[in-house]
Amino acid sequence: MASRRLVQLSNEHWIVLNIKRSTVHHLQRCCVHSRIKEDLEDENFKVLNILRDKDVKRFKWEKPPDVRTLSRADCMKTDMNWTSVWPTKAPFRWGSVPLPIRQGYRKKEYKLSAGKYGNAELVKIPNFLHLTPPHIKTHCQAIKKFCTEFPSELKNREIRKANFPLEVITSDYVTCGTSIRDPRSREVTVNVDLSVLKFDEHSVTKIKKLAGDKMDEKAMTLQLKSDRCPVRKQNFDFNVYTLTALYYESQEKEDWEDEMEESDWVKYQWDKTQSKKKILKLKHRIQQINSGEKTDLASSVSKSDPSVSVVDTEDDIQSYKSAFSNLKDEGDSRETLNAYKQSVLKLLKL
Amino acid sequence: MASVIYRIVSKQPSGYCINSSLLRSSSSLKCWQRCVTTFRTEISDPSEHSFDHEGQFYTIPKKDVQKIFMLNWMSPHEKNMNKMFQEFSILIRRPALEVMDILKRLNYNYPLTRFLLYGEMNAGKKFTMTHIMHYCRSQNWVLLTVPWANEWNCKRLDVSFNHHKESLFDLPVHSKILLEDFLLKNMSLIKEFTTSTTYEFSEHEASEQGIPLTDLISFGITRMKFANDVVGALLKELQILANNDKIKLLVTIRGINSFWRKTGQKKEKVQEIHAQQLTLVNQFMELLQSDTKNAVAMCSTESWVNDVTDRKSYLPTELMGKEGVDFLEPFLPIEVPK
After folding, report:
1. Cα-based angle B271, B273, B276 (whole degrees, multiple of 5)
2. Is residue B197 a contact partner of residue B207, using CB atoms and an 8 Å limit?
3. pLDDT for res A43
4. In which residue ranges is the amino acid composition biased (Low complexity) (chain A) (predicted)?
5. Domain A154-257: which topology?
């Protein structure tokens, strides 16, 4: 029983008086006079000794030893073998981990997260303390006797590429939980080196159009990714299927492909354009004028087909063709435009 | 080095000039050596300019300025400068000299030659054009100028349907401005010429064969309703005259890449008008594609034509698009460096 009282002292200060009352004290006060009596009446009566015996030790509530002061983690040496401390997958034991880990919410920014002692959050999350590098090393050492060496010839990248044109990339995901499955592991990437397959000009453009972004034209590689099927094997089969479909479709030529319009051309083909007609007509006119033919505008158009009299393998027309196709293919830059200008000047005989 | 030049230039009254190009032109060392002593030439006749004069300023005589440039070509800023300094000077630059060199050597019996000036914004395309126009004027060519082709796209003035073709749209006010401009510039040169055929503008109005060209043009100016048709008639007449070796024609179009864009013009019931639907544009395109002798077309692609956000590209194929390049070729691309 304890109580606090605000007591006013003589000098008008208030103090908090902590009054602890106990049964013993009360008795003590009561039995003061019996003590006096004890001295008087000594021999007949054994006096009841209610007073506290100083010799007898009272039971004191001893605090149990603080667990935190001496956990296993504190006694660990720095060069100890971790694999023996944590041999298998186990829930997080704060006493065995010698790391000053903190996990949890901070009420205020300057306050720290909760420590590892009794931290339930650290137990909830998965830990990989059973898969540290020393662990992996021992695992590998155990398995090594069943393995053969990687062939030294295949260490060279070019030889690998030449001998194995197909590259299959899959990913495995590790987790520490009740289930080892991860839905992300069904994705399969197949990289194909197309230089081992037969392609002619038409099929190259066709497969480029069919594959689109997946194909790298300069390196001649095809990258097929698939995660549309639920199982990894199915995704791999699907990739192989797309590869066969692309290859065989590109080898075939449909009838309607000849109707390809100018906007679809991969490379600018000058021979099939309006521009060719224009240039040949111009050239024809120039030749007529140079040779001094007296022709009216009206008659010259109807007279002869320009392409007949003008040979299109002539030098200036060829240079114009290459300059213009360059301009169209590569876009305009100073060099292409300059080249174009030179070819036009040549055409106009300047 | 730069500071010295600036000091010299600012002391003398000079017209509108591009200082930076002095340093960056290809023969900059030569220019620098010369520029310390003389940066002006007295030769005001452009036909006598040669590569020796590169990097120097020359003044355009006053009467030429009044006649050719005052009305439509110069911007308000330039007009102010002209008023203040009482002279108009241009820097002689390599692109202009290149074009003039080609013009001197060109065989004018060949069909229409097309030049395409391109360059970054404010590189000086307009002033190269001014120089070349002055040169052509000194050779007594007929000048047909379109000072800013995008005006047809942007300036919202009346749009009316064409009488002859239902799908095309007329721009009467713009046509009138064009005709006025043409008359002012070439009054003296076209005095003698007459129309060769009759032009029917509507059921009642027609111009007969044999009337002077000036009459035709003034008819177009007074009767705005038929101004666009008059422009078409004028272009045809000019073609015929050029083919008969009577005149030499210089067509100048600033901002030709506006021919292949959407306009901002609107007509009731019609939502958006594309530039290809304007008669003016069609008439000029016909002229550019024709096989007329004695004619030269000078066009420029301008980044200003695009919206404010789109102004980074300045190379011709980007600005004109595929249609433009296919239409204009074969053209001579001439770069105007900054």
Report:
1. 155
2. no
3. 66
4. 299-311
5. Double Stranded RNA Binding Domain (3.30.160)
Of A297, A338, A341, which has the smallest distance from its Cβ to B243's Cβ? A297
Q: Sign of torsion, CA A283 A285 A288 A292?
A: negative
Complex confidence, ipTM: 0.74
Inform me whether the C-beta atom of residue B203 falls under 8 Å from chain A C-beta atoms. no
Q: What is the DSSP string of A181-235?
A: --GGGG-EEEEEEGGGS---HHHHHHHHHHHGGGEETTTTEEEEEE--SSSHHHH
Amino acid sitting at position B54: E
B143 sits in which H/E element: strand B142-146
* Cα–Cα distance, A123 to A328 (Å, whole number): 66
Closest CA to B92 of B31, B7, B8: B31
Please tell me the distance from the alpha carbon of residue B292 to that of residue A220, in angstroms, as a whole number.
50
Asked if the C-beta of B332 comes within 8 angstroms of chain A's C-beta atoms, the answer is yes
Are B54 and B93 contacting, i.e. CB atoms less than 8 angstroms apart?
yes
Test B330 with A347 for CB contact under 8 angstroms.
yes
Percent of chain B at pLDDT exceeding 90:
0
Chain B partners within 8 Å of A341 (Cβ): 332-334
Q: Is the pLDDT of residue B87 over 50?
A: yes
pTM of the model: 0.64
3-state secondary structure of A8: strand
- For chain B, what is the mean pLDDT? 77
Q: What pLDDT, in 10s, does the model give residues A162-209?
A: 889 999 999 999 877 788 889 999 999 999 999 889 899 889 989 998
- Rounded-to-integer distance, Cα B40 and Cα B55, Å: 9
Q: Is B219 left (phi over 0), alpha (psi -120 to 50) or beta?
A: alpha
Burial per residue of A242-269, b for 16 or more beta-carbon CB atoms within 10 angstroms, e otherwise: bbeebbeebeeeeeeeeeeeeeeeeebe
A339 touches A326 (CB < 8 A): yes
Q: What is the pLDDT of residue A301?
A: 44
Q: Give the Cα separation of B43 and B64 in Å (integer).
A: 15
